[in-house]
Design brief:
Elements (H helix, E strand, L loop, with lengths): L11 H33 L11 H30 L7 E8 L2 E6 L8 E5 L22 E4 L4 E7 L4 E5 L4 E5 L5 E5 L5 E5 L14 E6 L1 H15 L1
Parallel strand pairs: 1-5, 4-10
Antiparallel strand pairs: 1-2, 2-3, 5-8, 6-7, 9-10
Bound molecules: copper (II) ion (CU).
The site of copper (II) ion has 7 residues, from loops.
């Protein structure tokens, strides 16, 4: 649908959200057309059809029809709500995201594991050496690397004020609240770079802490991880 729809979903979760959005949109358009048709009919109809007066069956029908439409919308959205938030298998990777004024700290792996990697992701401002197609305000020094095709659990918190981490194409936006841990699941479908912005006003440089996620094939991810680990030793 190109410009008329949401951005291309980058994850299974974003795809599910798009299904909810588009199915609700189609149902909404259908209801609008039916109601619009009857509205125009009533406006321009000069006669009165006695068949439609005091019709209990008709009233029961349109009450039930709208009830079933609501049940359809509700069942799709509740199903996606649970599917996007629950997993019965252990995620392949845990990523911790900590918001700071005004940058993100990423950590791959949890506290007890030996192979935990932690780094800061800061904005690179445009300079006179920047190329002509330099992406202003969404270029960072070290993006978050995640593998494609596996389940990644994101744990988001903050060290100072409330921030919000997410990227449009990933279909995720999680508030980074000090003292709380918010959780999201991602299963990226295609390699690529996904951009987002801090979505909670967090101070003077709120617009200068983009979230850049680089999704790469699993082998590339392992190579990158072992390379970084060896260079840290
Ligand atoms: Cu922020």
């Amino acid at each position: 649908m190109g410009q008329f729809s949401l951005p291309e979903p980058g994850t299974v979760q974003a795809y599910n959200l798009q299904v909810v959005y588009e199915s609700s949109l189609v149902l909404g358009l259908f209801v609008m057309l039916v109601v619009g048709y009857f509205l125009l009919m009533i406006m321009f109809n000069k006669g009165t059809c006695t068949k439609y007066l005091e019709q209990p069956y008709l009233e029961v029908f349109w009450s039930l029809a709208s009830f079933f439409l609501l049940v359809m919308m509700c069942s799709v959205s509740v199903y996606v709500l649970y599917v996007n938030d629950e997993t019965y298998t252990e995620p392949y990777l845990d990523v911790c995201v900590v918001g700071h004024q005004w940058y993100w700290t990423y950590q791959i792996g949890l506290g007890e594991e030996a192979d935990v990697l932690r780094w800061d992701s800061r904005l690179i401002p445009r300079s006179k050496d920047s190329s002509i197609d330099f992406l202003d305000l969404i270029t960072v020094d070290h993006p978050l690397m995640i593998p494609v095709g596996v389940l990644v659990r994101v744990l988001v918190t903050s060290a100072d004020v409330i921030h919000s981490w997410g990227a449009n194409g990933l279909g995720v936006k999680l508030d980074a609240v000090p003292g709380r841990l918010n959780r999201g699941l991602l299963e990226v479908k295609a390699p690529g770079i996904y951009w987002g912005m801090c979505a909670e006003f967090c101070g003077q440089m709120h617009s200068m802490m983009p979230t850049v996620v680089e999704a790469v094939p699993e082998e590339t991810f392992s190579d990158w991880k072992s390379h970084v680990e060896s260079s840290m030793l």
